[in-house]
Amino acid sequence: MTDHFVDRTARLYGINSIGKDCMVLEDVTLGHPSAKILQEISKLKISISEYEFNGVTIGSNAMIRSGSILYSDVKIGDNFRTGHTILIRENTTIGNNVLVGTNVIIDGNTMIGNSAAIKAYPGKNSTIGRPSTVRTQVSLRVGTAMKPMVNRTRTIPHG
Predict the structure, then answer these.
(1) Could you say which of 31, 45, 63, 102 is the most buried, measured as most Cβ atoms within 10 Å of its Cβ?
(2) Model confidence over 10-39: pLDDT tens digits?
(3) What is the pTM assigned to this prediction?
(4) Residue 143 and residue 86: Cα distance in Å, rounded?
(5) C-alpha 81: how far from its chain's center?
(6) What pLDDT sits at residue 119?
(7) Are strands 99-100 and 81-82 parallel, antiparallel or unpaired?
(8) Are the C-beta atoms of 92 and 51 separated by less than 8 Å?
(9) Highest mean pLDDT: which of 1-5, 31-35, 122-126, 145-149?
(10) Which CATH homologous superfamily contains domain 5-126?
């Protein structure tokens, strides 16, 4: 008997480690192969199931909601939570007690420390007037440096 739950519709690639009391809900992809891995598989002319690579390592007490995709070489600490349809690219390390909100994209080669909440959308009861500029730039502290994650700007015209 396992000490975690992975929905039968989840897709797992590579070698994954899922901690105690974790829930991986429907249509989640864990360990999605990076472009580099897919190129190596293509050169070797083998199937993806024949190629060994690191998938995802998830600590204990995590909740990964439906439609989420976590690429290969992602390492996640304890008490991790996601909204629906998040995307975490390869070679990303995430600390303990982290929330990644619905539809958030975390590009590869990123480090996120402990107790972070990443939400790239206005919260409940927000009012955005006209004309407005909505910026979804997130900067995370990595050691002593700031690393920009996303930089999208949308201007809402008068009307």
Answers:
(1) 31
(2) 999 999 999 999 999 999 999 999 999 999
(3) 0.78
(4) 25
(5) 10
(6) 83
(7) parallel
(8) no
(9) 31-35
(10) Hexapeptide repeat proteins (2.160.10.10)
